[in-house]
Amino acid sequence: MNTKPKTLGELKTSGYSHKSIKDELRDNLIQSLRSGKATFPGIHGYESTVIPQLERAILSKHNINLLGLRGQGKTRIARLMVQLLDEYIPVVEGSELNDDPLMPISRFAKDLINKEGDNTPIIWLHREERFFEKLATPDVTIADLIGDIDPIKAANLKLNYADERVLHFGMIPRANRSIFVINELPDLQARIQVALFNILEEGDIQIRGFKLRIPLDIQFVFTANPEDYTNRGSIVTPLKDRIGSQILTHYSSDIETAKKITGQEASKLESRLFNVYVPELAKDIIEQIAFEARRSEYVDYKSGVSARMSITAYENLVSTAERRALLNNEKKTTVRFSDLMGMIPSITGKVELVYEGEQEGSSFVANHLISQATKTLFTSYFPKIQKLKKKGEDSPYAEIVNWFLEGNSIELSDHSSDKEHARVLESIQPLKDLVLQYQARVSKEDLPFFMEFVLWALVDLKQLSKKRSDDKILFNDGIDSLISEL
């Protein structure tokens, strides 16, 4: 940084040449593609869909609109574009509009260069300081985005309102030579969207009668949710026409990709004081819950189900196990299947329910989604339960069901130690035998989770019954439960 030119004269002799932000993005993207470097690191599931479209848009020097449901990484993508900028760019010192010393656009910079010449001081702006973001809300004004007359400035400088120096520039002019993101564009009032027309096309801005020809150099990125087009507003057609590329985002199509995203976002949990082991099956169930929610009759699919649901659910799952370890004075613990109930607050706050879901209640819907995810994944690990069996054909689960029919039952406590929890489950010998038969490679740490998984699945598939009481869950056969209720 100390070796960089500090005056306009030094900058000229250094060989620096002006480059627009779109050219910066394009040139640096070309270098990344040639070197095989990931252009959008940390973005999973978009490798063959969204990212190629983004790269084509940048190569075409387009402004971009990212269109997709909530929690699809639209804002994260926009922020990662900063990494495609040059690390530092020169700016006229004191300029509000990040003026390039070789191509100044503001009255301040032009006057300063005319006065100081090659002695004009310059500073170097890091790429992290060249990202601006604004959430579009109905109360956003033209003054916020573009600017307004500043009466205090006029009084201090003793200028009349006809002098352009009395103008206070808004966020967009101040983002000159930067990436400017407007999130949820349809929420922006139509008259405000109209004010963006010339900025996108010609660079003209108009503030209360001042028509200024300022060739702003900005990379615009807009984000929008398809739901907003009908519920709250729309993107006016002339503005949409000025946006070069509209790119559709989507949710992960498979559990493995979804797990990568959740693990990446929830990685901060690894720094906990307690060692909480999370079986891979538990992670699969978390992601499957999101898949079930996106096709559930109780959930509004138009709203989408954000990836943040899986992330917060994972955090609550680990915290449920951590809390038990604290109460038991244990240094480490393993997540149990019953700990999934601790995720319910994360689920209920992340799904928009349709009328049928509202009638049933958010807690019911959350439990229903966990149940559906359990049943869906169960057949990936164990044989499917046949409702109609051939004569003489025994179910693989017959011995487990018979164990309960003989009058046996078990009670699993939320607060029991890991050792006690495993002991209770292993008291059902047919259950342990079944897991070891179909999942021979299951680890010792995962065995209790798999055994409890089978019990919960058999309940969901109407083979057994369970009853919740305070901090305990009682498993028994369905007939015994029915007699008890009668």
List keywords for this structure.
Rossmann fold; 5-stranded parallel beta sheet; Arc Repressor Mutant, subunit A; single chain; 486 residues; 43% helix; elongated; Helicase, Ruva Protein, domain 3; alpha/beta
Explain what this protein looks like in three dimensions:
- The chain is of the alpha/beta class and 486 residues long.
- The chain folds into three domains: 212 residues, 3-Layer(aba) Sandwich (Rossmann fold); 127 residues, Magnesium chelatase subunit I, C-Terminal domain (Helicase, Ruva Protein, domain 3, Orthogonal Bundle); 82 residues, Arc Repressor Mutant, subunit A.
- It contains 23 helices and 16 strands.
- The strands form six sheets. It has a five-stranded parallel β-sheet with strand order 4-7-10-1-11, covered by helices on one side. The protein has a three-stranded antiparallel β-sheet with strand order 14-16-15.
